[in-house]
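DM from R.C. (forwarded with permission)

"hey, sorry to bug you on a friday — could you get me a structure for this? deadline for the figure draft is monday and I only need the backbone to look sensible"
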Amino acid sequence: MAGLLGKDAALFVSSGTMSNLLALMSYCGRGDEFIAGQNAHCYKYEAGGAAVLGSIQPQPIAHQADGTMALGDIESAIKDGSDSHFATTRVIALENTFGGRVLPVSYMQSVADIAQRHGLGLHLDGARAFNASSVLGLDIRSFVAPFDTVSICLSKGLGAPVGSVLVGRQDLIDTARRNRKMLGGGLRQSGILAAAGLYALEHNVVRLADDHRRAKRLAEGLARHEALRVTMPDSNIVWVDMGSETGEQLTPYLAQHGVGITGRYGQQRWVTHLDVGDDDVEAALALVDGFFTRT
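My reply, with the result:
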């Protein structure tokens, strides 16, 4: 993985949550700070691990409509350590894809320029980075070039049963390796898990384009219904908004008929992956058609 991404070293871990946490702990000491988006996974969806286990303070930044953080907001939030009232900023964390949306390479480079100007680290939560690079038609090495560390998930789009890999600069991975041991993440006899990850890298990267094509077909089919407000996908995640009453009925209806999605408060998240074929997409759309016909 390190060679594939053009980085010094890499570290296998059990989850993306651990991978992101180890990255942040490699940059930050107790009382230091990381900058991330308000809805970024490493801030919002990882149980506050950076604060609890790393004693690291998060500095969340509001997202713009396109999923980015305004460059001015990022730069104005940086604290250089000269004032003892504030935590010292050590790293900026980006996420791409972000909820399935592919953020532009030019944006990532602009954030990298800010990080370099202020002497900060730059981390990418690239759980679905291979999806993003596939959409852009860019090789993964070029896609992750601006970053000091990158977290890659093996068990999402790539389809392995478990695991993530933290990739990056040698000194940061060395620190992460020691912290992995402290967190209980050092795995013995992990070869079978690594074998699954290698299989995923060798066989399941090119086929990501099939997931993206199926997600687009799914979105177009769902958008036929006036009650559903569908966001056309960049990659393999389709977001669907609807009235709460419709959502309270449609989500369990689909579950009863074998279609598993996440949904609450009138929003659904549909994801295509290697276990979803063209026939599955058409069957799901037929179920939705049937739901609205009967109601």
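R.C.: lifesaver. DSSP finds 13 helices and eleven strands in the chain.
me: no worries. Residues 39 and 59 are 12 Å apart (CA to CA).
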